[in-house]
Design brief:
Elements: E1 2-7, E2 10-12, E3 18-26, E4 30-39, E5 46-52, E6 57-59, E7 67-72, E8 77-82, E9 91-100, E10 108-111, E11 115-119
Parallel strand pairs: 2-11
Antiparallel strand pairs: 1-3, 3-8, 4-5, 4-9, 5-6, 7-8, 9-10, 9-11
């Protein structure tokens, strides 16, 4: 019923930039927040950046001043602009949307399939 489609992952050299996109589609009444997570091999999944429908943002300390999260509420799409990339940014990046499908329903989380970001020289 609800699907998140991600794009923009790939291989980039240290210091380079990458832009991730995630579009939510299906029966969506409104979106409370959209969030980017990442998980490196043999590490715990961590929150990277989050943005609410009102525009408030939060970032992990490790990406502050390098990454920027933004969204287009009309298109239910969230973006992650990643600059000054470091090898430690290498991970699978997942998009998450906290939304409801009608005005009377509860809030649910939906996940994208993940996209690989590799930072290496």
């Amino acid at each position: 019923q609800v699907q998140l489609v991600e794009s923009g992952g790939g291989l980039v050299q240290p210091g380079g930039s990458l832009r991730l996109s995630c579009a939510a589609s299906g029966r969506i009444f409104n979106v409370n927040a959209m969030v980017w997570y990442r998980q490196a091999p043999e590490k715990e999944r961590e929150l990277v950046a989050a943005i609410t429908s009102g525009g408030s943002t939060n970032y992990a300390d490790s990406v502050k001043d390098r990454f920027t999260i933004s969204r287009d509420n009309a298109k239910n799409t969230v973006y992650l602009q990643m600059n000054s990339l470091k090898p430690e940014d290498t991970a699978v990046y997942y998009c998450n949307a906290d939304l409801r499908s009608n005005r009377f329903g509860g809030w649910n989380n939906y996940w994208g399939q993940g996209t690989q970001v590799t930072v290496s020289s």
